[in-house]
Design goal:
By secondary structure, this protein is mainly alpha-helical. Helices cover 55% and strands 7% of the residues. It contains six helices and two strands. The protein has a two-stranded antiparallel ribbon with strand order 1-2.
Amino acid sequence: MTNESIKEYLDKMYGNHLYEELESTDQDKIIFDAYELLKDNFKVEIITDRAVALQVLYMLEGEEEEFSKLKRHGVKSYSVKGVSVAFDGTEISPTVIQLLEPAPRAKVGRLI
């Protein structure tokens, strides 16, 4: 996995306009940040280009809406002029969590 392979994946994704609007150096920085965040929470061996690309888009969407800043500071609920937002979860995309965490499997055995 390299920055170039992640960039190629991002270039193919629908809805990547926020990523494409970034300068090349900023693209490298957001990829680095996303990868580092995922390394802090998952084994390096299971992190894929797809996971990093999805995390990059998730982070950019959050920054655009300015909710990421609030989540990073541990805000659980936010209200302005009658509009209320409650945050649940982490800075990691729910899609990435589903992708990288193994699905629980039932163990089948025999009772004697």
